[in-house]
Amino acid sequence: MTIHNLKKVIAIGIFVFFSFLGFSNSVFAQEHLEELETYKGKVLESVVVDCDDISGESEFICVKYSVEILDGDRKNDSVETLISAVNSEADFFKKGKIVYLSLYSSEELGDQWNIESYSREGQLLSLLLIFVVLILLVTGFRGIKAVLGLVLSFIVIYFVAIPNINSTLNGNILPIAILTVFLLLIASTFVTYGFNRKSLIAFISSILGVMFIFCVGFVVVKALDISGTGEESAVMLYDTISKSFSLSSIYLLGIVIGALGVLDDVTIGQVSSMMEIYQTDSSLTSKVLYRKAMNIGKDHIASMINTLFIAYAGSSFTLVILLAANNPNFRILINTEFLVEEIVRTLVASICLILVVPVTTYISSIVLVKMKNL
């Protein structure tokens, strides 16, 4: 085994070790939270029923479903679901489609079935395979490492961070946040790019960037009295998990995680550009190399800030339209909790990206010129 491969194995080993620690701590939480049984089923029939028991609002349509269970101890059974209120017939679960159902059983109410969602994992897997194949065709072996980094990032967020946050009873998510960010940075730098000078500089710069984001975000969240309740899902989380749960902390962690991908792109891109410049002319001084690289960094900053804004705006476009339709007054609209959260999310991440580019450039100029044998 070469030294280069050994370094990659060590980096992945560190990642797996800390992931295991986080995962083992979340096992109890998962068992504790799983109160509902889940089954896969096939929709046999949908029946429109009277809505009076659910809502007096005439614009809703109420429907209940007959579903055949396809797995588990109730396989081949036909069950009826609870009544659901929807906006139109287009929102009905379609006959013949495969769905997931939840079952809640109690002595008072008996079995209560409810359709949770369509079964879409097959289509999602096909889309994922197309994505992976295209990456491999275009980027070759480097794409394999990128896919591995993506898989590890998915594991960290959905099997380490989220279960551990759900199990936090005292509302203190700082240890989980630190572990999550650390593992995500390992996945996006050392696993993807190997353990070398470029990834080491990017990792250090990204750590500093995360510190910038956290500090700036903490001050802004406190100054603007952001509660983290701008989204309906946040309120539902608050009611579901714990009344002592800090939604503003979750919101701040969301800003950090959301900016990590762009932060990694900026640091790696900046270091790679500087290495190419220095390899072309190794007689450059640190000061000259810094100045040349910052010309590239300025363009990088401009493009990334616009990327952040468009990404956040696109992800919440429907809700913004809804808010504007309900309250067209711009001054009131811009001060609603949801829009304030989105604005702060964009600006905090952008401020820290602006700060991290000169820091990354400075560190790189020192390492490349004055520490050639590192």
Kindly list the characteristics that best describe this protein.
single chain; 374 residues; alpha+beta; 6-stranded antiparallel β-sheet
Structure description:
With 374 residues, the protein is an alpha+beta fold. The protein has two domains: 3-29 and 140-370, no CATH class; 37-119, OB fold (Dihydrolipoamide Acetyltransferase, E2P), CATH 2.40.50. The chain contains eleven helices and six strands. Strands 1, 2, 3, 4, 5 and 6 form a six-stranded antiparallel sheet that branches. It is elongated.
Q: DSSP helix count?
A: 11
Outline, from the CA principal axes?
A: elongated
- What is the count of structural domains? 2
What portion of residues is helical? 55-70%
Find the count of extended strands (DSSP E, 2+ residues): 6
Order of helices and strands: HEEEEEEHHHHHHHHHH
Spans of at least 5 consecutive residues whose pLDDT stays below 50 are: 20-34
Distance between termini? 22 Å
The whole-angstrom Rg is 25 Å
Give me the oligomer status: single chain
Judged by helices, strands and strand pairing, the structural class is alpha+beta
Summarize the main sheet. Answer: 6 strands, antiparallel
Summarize the structure.
The protein has 374 residues and is of the alpha+beta class.
SSE topology sketch:
Layout: H1 3-33, E1 37-49, E2 61-69, E3 78-80, E4 84-86, E5 98-106, E6 110-118, H2 121-139, H3 141-166, H4 174-193, H5 197-223, H6 232-240, H7 247-280, H8 286-315, H9 317-326, H10 330-334, H11 337-370
